[in-house]
Amino acid sequence: MATVTEYDTIAAISTPPGEGAISIVRLSGDQAVALANHVFKGANLTKVASHTIHYGHIVDPRDQQEMDEVMVSVMLAPKTFTREDVVEINCHGGIVATNRILQLLLAVGARMAEPGEFTKRAFLNGRIDLTQAESVMDLIRAKTDQAMKVALNQLDGNLQHLIKNLRQEILQVLAQVEVNIDYPEYDEEQLTAQMLREKAIQVEHEIDQLLATANQGKILREGLATAIIGRPNVGKSSLLNYLLHEDKAIVTDVAGTTRDVLEEYVNVQGVPLKLIDTAGIHDTNDKVEKIGVARSKKALSEADLVILVLDASEALTKEDRQLLDLTAQQKRMIVLNKADLTSQITPATLAALGVTEDPIVASVKTKVGLTKIETEIKTLFFGGIENQQKDILVSNNRQIGLLQQARASLQQVLAGLNQGLPVDLVQIDMTTCWDKLGEITGESAPDELITQLFSQFCLGK
Ligand SMILES: Nc1nc2c(c(=O)[nH]1)N(C=O)[C@@H](CNc1ccc(C(=O)N[C@@H](CCC(=O)O)C(=O)O)cc1)CN2
Ligand SMILES: Nc1nc2c(ncn2[C@@H]2O[C@H](COP(=O)(O)OP(=O)(O)OP(=O)(O)O)[C@@H](O)[C@H]2O)c(=O)[nH]1
Ligand SMILES: [Mg+2]
After folding, report:
1. Does the complex come out with an ipTM higher than 0.85?
2. In the prediction, which pLDDT does 34 show?
3. Looking at the domain that runs over 132-213+394-454, which CATH code has it been given?
4. What's the confidence (pLDDT) of residue 107?
5. How many CA atoms lie within 13 A of 393 on its CB side?
6. Could you tell which of 229, 233, 264 is best to mutate to test the pocket of ligand 2, judged by most ligand atoms within 8 Å of the CB?
7. How many A from CA of 80 to the centre of ligand 1?
8. Fold exhibited by the domain 223-387
């Protein structure tokens, strides 16, 4: 029962709460097999071969009461999920039965795992790095095929290896600087500065390439934030319902029907969208509507894509013009809705106002132009992210933030060299870069960060 650590033995239910055919209670640690064996009637689990599964019953050793009929998997360190001894009890699904088994394990000496603690141990025991741990969570939360692909890719360690290589290169140049400092000669100083400069430029370039994939990664993970905006009653909620293929939002002929922001995830032609229906934007004295309008404006400012809906059956209003101005700098699509009625606004009307995009003439009511809206979403999406599906994508804010910090310290290196600062000062910024990259993989991450990060995981993971 050789384990690589001295951590205590933890237990948790690893399947979602609720009724199901089977639930899994998982144990990890030195005492996993002994504790499981203590409550198990069947084979002697302390004697079985690793990676075997056994039929039997869970029996409370205190009163010999039989609790459940189960299958128990025994996986001995180090080739396990945590690199510790792992036992998984496959019991009958059901909240009460599963909880009773967990309680029994706690009663005989296991400790209730914290959220993410199994994965944390896999990290602490060196099986995975932080980027892989984070990808486990991304995998669970993935809402689209692409998001899942990105997560699997990161779980395979591709980002980790790239970061590790960058750190290795920085380390080599830092080591060389040390040697040069030990033998200070004028030429050496020149040479060292040159070396630092070249490396800083090269690493900065690679970080830039990674960051360039960040936006795409974030969109795949969270969905392209798409705000449907327009003044009241133009058909925003009708369009949302169409795109969702579901009557989610309330639609009426009363202006001001939608009063709050409504968010829904949907896949439009392979593009993951976080669709945001908003309250019609206009000047109002209504207390509730006012708040709704403020929220609409916030959603608008945070959106990756804006769908601006105009009611083509009415002449362009002052509010329409304001919205056209307000969204001019954003990636947007203009929809001239209610084309089934007599049109007062045409594409030419907008072109005359200096609008460069071609509006989509549509009617949500008679289902005209709707496919075109969907196709345009796809075009705008891939247009914006250059459809160069790179293998490695940085997708979470923690990683992006650290890459930006690493990049900033490289710029400090270059600035310092340009100002002719002594090499040993420049060296400090280079070391900061190395540290920041190390935080991404967890090699130089502070304890609090690790604790905080894993606490966001779900229980039993
Ligand atoms: N029953 C069960 N199913 C599960 C999991 C689990 O923990 N239990 N997993 C939980 O997420 C996922 C599988 N992930 C795993 C990842 C690594 C190892 C593991 O034992 N790795 C060792 C040895 C690999 C080998 O035998 O070659 C290692 O990497 O050293 C196990 C599961 C999904 N399915
Ligand atoms: N004729 C016609 N009516 C439409 C069309 N699209 C929506 N409507 C109608 O316009 C009215 C307003 O639609 P909504 O979808 O509630 O409009 P909204 O923009 O969400 O309105 P607020 O939430 O009040 O800002 C409803 O009576 C819809 O049935 C269309 O293409 N043609
Ligand atoms: Mg509405």
Report:
1. no
2. 98
3. 1.20.120.430
4. 97
5. 27
6. 233
7. 6
8. Rossmann fold (3.40.50)
